[in-house]
């Protein structure tokens, strides 16, 4: 029987865990501790007074797979179904994604399945690479970089351009360092279980958790949604969960509550804040790994070091608004491979998938330029000292050279997002296993959730909250 659970961190991971805890009668009290002045973490939207919406974090959430369905079920349950803005597979924003290579935009197929179709600027049909791929022997290594994996199976060209860009557009990271096993388990499992990506895609190669679709998820499947957002921005999701939690007398929500230290005690944990302390029987940490590391007592080595070793990258996110329809192409946006421009990751054409977020009757175009990531320091230096004006100038210059837009933006917002995306480097799975083994061995009543461990997407993070609660309550 669980009594009090403390949830550290009020990003989407912590909120999701609290939501699932709240649904269980076994839990008497949930204490959410968030250091900042708002809940939601990287889910962060600006709503301008004229009605325009700008996203500084995630902007489109995928509805597919078990984790996608799970999030839609939550959205449905929270009563947000009427606010969903779906983008179907047939929409131009789903069909058109571009690569900026050799100073030109090239249309590419989207997603991982896109690797299996023909894409310029490549020199041979992808079908050829895929045909040959079936003949490539499977690796005996227990992990490999994404770049090495794709080079070996599909050829260097696809690795250098398509996969390099894909990793920048999801992890803001370097595919030469990222782990295929942890970042793209579907690809890793396809090779391990079927001997080939092509066969893996055809026959399936994973064990998918069972998540039945409730009405909204059913609608998403029927209407073939490729992604969705919310009328007042993605931040409505954490706001709505917070509203749900506030209605429960068993939940305490604390903002401005910086967790300083956590100490195992006879009955569970003592959690020290800047002012005062709270006790809990169990802790669900939804903090970034490094933040959790700095709160643990020295008796928790080597866990402290392993948490510390999970790297993160900093991304500069620049939202721009232009008067009129200024785009030369329609689509989701474009990515830039590291060989073309190391620190310019890509540009999202937000107005195309989500015109509802434009200023009403305004005829404007909203773009988001993403910069830095694994290449941040190299190009911009120390995030502490980089100037906003410099980031804004780099962003508007890229819009000019990549898209031929010569006009000046009518509105802009620069956000320097420090350590916002964890990087799952080679051996990440071993590190995560080792941390969880240590926790079990030491009988620590502690769950690790959030983007540092089992996937960075909003869906993955929400699902990690659900899994931790089910394990805690003995549901699985
Ligand atoms: C620019 C950008 C674009 C993205 N785009 C997408 C996308 O399109 N689709 C998608 O699925 N995902 C996207 N993501 C990824 C996704 O948004 C994140 O991985 C996810 O929001 C992480 O949630 P989290 O709860 O694990 O962490 P966080 O949001 O980092 O939450 C952690 C919380 O802990 C708090 N905290 C830190 N230290 C302490 C402390 N000592 N005490 C108390 N509280 C503390 C923080 O203030 C924060 O609120 C994007 C991320 C970024 C940055
Ligand atoms: C240019 C930088 C970034 C862009 N988005 C992100 C970064 C770092 C962050 C991000 N984007 C996606 C996810 C979640 C993945 C998931 O599993 O759901 C994250 C953390 C979604 C995504 N965006 C692109 C792709 C190929 C994906 C994967 C899922 C899918 O196929 O929908 C492409 C892409 N991202 C950005 C641009 C400009 C772009 C391509 C045109 C911005």
UniProtKB/TrEMBL annotation:
Monomer. Homodimer. It catalyses: protoporphyrinogen IX + 3 O2 = protoporphyrin IX + 3 H2O2. It is a peripheral membrane protein. Keywords: FAD, Flavoprotein, Heme biosynthesis, Membrane, Mitochondrion, Mitochondrion inner membrane, Oxidoreductase, Porphyrin biosynthesis. One of its GO terms (cellular component) is mitochondrial inner membrane. Residues 12-473 form the Amine oxidase domain. It is found in: Mitochondrion inner membrane. Binds 1 FAD per subunit. Belongs to the protoporphyrinogen/coproporphyrinogen oxidase family. Protoporphyrinogen oxidase subfamily. GO terms for molecular function: oxygen-dependent protoporphyrinogen oxidase activity. Pathway: Porphyrin-containing compound metabolism; protoporphyrin-IX biosynthesis; protoporphyrin-IX from protoporphyrinogen-IX: step 1/1. This is Protoporphyrinogen oxidase. InterPro entries: Amino_oxidase, FAD/NAD-bd_sf, Protoporphyrinogen_oxidase, Zeta_carotene_desat/Oxidored. Catalyzes the 6-electron oxidation of protoporphyrinogen-IX to form protoporphyrin-IX. GO terms for biological process: heme B biosynthetic process; protoporphyrinogen IX biosynthetic process. Its EC number is 1.3.3.4. Its cofactor is FAD. Gene3D superfamilies: FAD/NAD(P)-binding domain. It holds the Pfam family Amino_oxidase. The gene is ppox.
